[in-house]
C-alpha cells in the first residue's frame, strides 16, 4: 500500500489489552497480526458485496441519472457491467490489500480516488474548451475517431459543474470486527500461555 494514503487508525482499549496479553505471554504476534489482517480484509470485501458501511448502514444508491446511464451501458471495456456500487471497473475493490508486521495489521488501498468514496465530497470541474470530432450516421451526429475520413471537427465548451459524491465507507471497524479480533487474540493468548506459540 504505497502512494497516496489516508490513514484510519483504530484505538480500542479492550483489543489493545488483548494484544498486550499475547505479547506478555511470549506469543508470536506476527502470526496473530497476519490472521487479523486477513479477517479485516475479508470484512472490507464483504462490505463491497453487501454495500454497507462498518456500522451496518446501507450505502446511498446511485443518483437517478447515473442509474439510467449505467442501465443503458452493456459493458465497460471487456468486463461485463455490474450493478454493484463502487464496482464499475472493479479497480477499487481489487486494490484493497493487507499489510502486516509483527506489531501492526493494516487494510487499505493506494487508489487515488478511494478517499472521496470513503468520506464523500464535492468535485468541481472548471470550464474547458476542446475540439471534438463528429460524423453523421443516419442523419445524427456521432463521435468520430481520429482516422475517420468524413469527420468534422467542432469546438465544444463545457461550463463549470460540481459533482457530489456521497460517502460510501468501506474501511472501518465494526462490532463484528472487534469481536473477531478479540477471539483471535484470546486464542493466541491461550496458545502462548500453554507454550504452543
Plain-language structure description:
The protein has 197 residues and is of the alpha+beta class. The chain has two domains: 1-120 and 167-197, no CATH class; 122-165, no CATH class. It has helices at 13-24, 29-50, 64-72, 91-95, 114-119, 175-193; strands at 75-76, 79-80, 97-100, 105-108, 121-125, 128-137, 140-143, 152-158, 161-165. Strands 7-6-8 form a three-stranded antiparallel β-sheet, with no helix packed on it. Strands 1-2 form a two-stranded antiparallel sheet. It has a two-stranded antiparallel sheet with strand order 3-4. Strand 3 and strand 4 form a beta hairpin. The chain is elongated, with a radius of gyration of 24 Å.
Task: Give the gist of this structure.
The protein has 197 residues and is α+β, with helices and mostly antiparallel strands. The chain has six helices and nine strands.
Amino acid at each position: 500500500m504505497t502512494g497516496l494514503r489516508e490513514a484510519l487508525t483504530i484505538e480500542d482499549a479492550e483489543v489493545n489489552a488483548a494484544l498486550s496479553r499475547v505479547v506478555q505471554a511470549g506469543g508470536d504476534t506476527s502470526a496473530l497480526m497476519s490472521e487479523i489482517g486477513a479477517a479485516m480484509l475479508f470484512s472490507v470485501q464483504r462490505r463491497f458485496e453487501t454495500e454497507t458501511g462498518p456500522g451496518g448502514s446501507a450505502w446511498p444508491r446511485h443518483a437517478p441519472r447515473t442509474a439510467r446511464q449505467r442501465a443503458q451501458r452493456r459493458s465497460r471495456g471487456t468486463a461485463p457491467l455490474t450493478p454493484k456500487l463502487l464496482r464499475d471497473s472493479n479497480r477499487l475493490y481489487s486494490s484493497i490489500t493487507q499489510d502486516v508486521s509483527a506489531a501492526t495489521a493494516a487494510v487499505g488501498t493506494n487508489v487515488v480516488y478511494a478517499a472521496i468514496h470513503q468520506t464523500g465530497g464535492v468535485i468541481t470541474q472548471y470550464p474547458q474548451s476542446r475540439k471534438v470530432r463528429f460524423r453523421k450516421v443516419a442523419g445524427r451526429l456521432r463521435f468520430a475517431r481520429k482516422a475517420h475520413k468524413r469527420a468534422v471537427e467542432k469546438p465544444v465548451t463545457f461550463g463549470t459543474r460540481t459533482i457530489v459524491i456521497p460517502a460510501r465507507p468501506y474501511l472501518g471497524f465494526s462490532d463484528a470486527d472487534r469481536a473477531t479480533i478479540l477471539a483471535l487474540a484470546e486464542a493466541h493468548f491461550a496458545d502462548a500461555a500453554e507454550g504452543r506459540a
